[in-house]
Amino acid sequence: MNVRRLPLPTAVVAAAAALGLGALSACSSGGAAAGSTDKFDVVASFYPMAFLAEQIGGAHVHVTSLTQPGQEPHDLELSTQQIVQLQEADAALHLKGLQPAVDEAIAQSEVGTKIDAATLTSLEDHEDEHGHEDGHEDEHGHEHEHEGGKDPHVWLDPVKYAEVAEGVGKAFEKADPDHAADYRKNTEALVGKLNDLDAAFETGLKNRKTDVFITTHAAFGYLAERYGLIEEAISGLSPESEPSGARVKELTRTAEADGVTTVFYETLVSDRTAKTLADDAGLKTDVLDPIEGITDGSRGDDYFQVMESNLESLQTALGAK
Asked: Is the pLDDT of residue 270 over 90?
């Protein structure tokens, strides 16, 4: 977008150097870096935020994602280059509580428009049926706790994702009023598609044989709540955590008692734990994708295609007709 770019403050450069622990380069919807185009430049934290920005912004935006395709986003660290790109952007779109390094970098930046998706819908605590806390330790003993203990995976509920989309659309209208009408039109179209997706899940999951499904990490709490399902997660809200032997035995008993047929794993992390549990319990495995990134291994090219694949996987696993 044609705006006057201010020189980077010394403090920002210093902060960038301090935070530049990774050697990751930003990926974007175009070849140019944030801040170097005549479009409304948006830096998005990871795929679900970048998808919203692209769908709502259309031809008027240039979107840069801080998380590479195929990269697990939870423990992302930013390079100095990425922090400078963030500083040069017109807007930053993130989901506070999911990626601490991104949250810190955005808080320290002088980006004119900062959009926190976590403020655009209601976040909830999601403990499993046995009261396991959201906070947990990974295999290295590091404690992981999402912001305020809240589950950030709102994009997996089409209704909540639509609420976020409406908020992002309004923020784009305010920040780039010359294209407000197009942002409004694009937002309405996206919300309509999300409403259709919600209806497809509601209809497609009726007449099921069981409500219970087992996943590698607890990403599907909002989806489960929306459609009356029960998610039993092997790990916590971060896919890096390792389950205890007692938890594995507990899930084996749950699977037998509730008629569970399938242990779900995801595309961006190892399927080892899921397959071990499935082998021990005599269950099948399949993919239930939390859509934290799209790769060549994803069952679809975008959010909607992968969500439709998730619906098919759930229908099969739950015995829905």
From this structure: no
For residue 102, give every residue at least 6 positions away whose Cβ sits within 8 Å of its Cβ, in sequence order, or none. 45, 66, 76, 78, 94
**C-beta separation of 186 from 169 below 8 A:** yes
Report helix angle 100-108 to 80-88, nearest 10.
50
Residue/partner pairs of 104-110 with CB below 8 Å, 24 or more apart: 104/19, 105/15, 105/19, 105/78, 108/12, 108/15, 109/12, 109/83, 110/6, 110/9, 110/12
143 pLDDT band, cuts 50/70/90, is very low
Distance CA 275, CA 113 (A): 44
Number of alpha carbons in the 13 Å side-chain half-sphere of residue 138: 12
C-alpha pair distances (Å), 225 with each of 117, 126, 152, 213, 313: 20, 10, 14, 12, 17
Residue 35 pLDDT > 90: no
Q: In 83-242, where do the E strands start and end? A: 91-94, 113-116, 136-137, 143-144, 212-215, 230-233
Residue 156 CB neighbours (<10 A): 24
- CA-based nearest residue to 189, from 219, 216, 169: 169
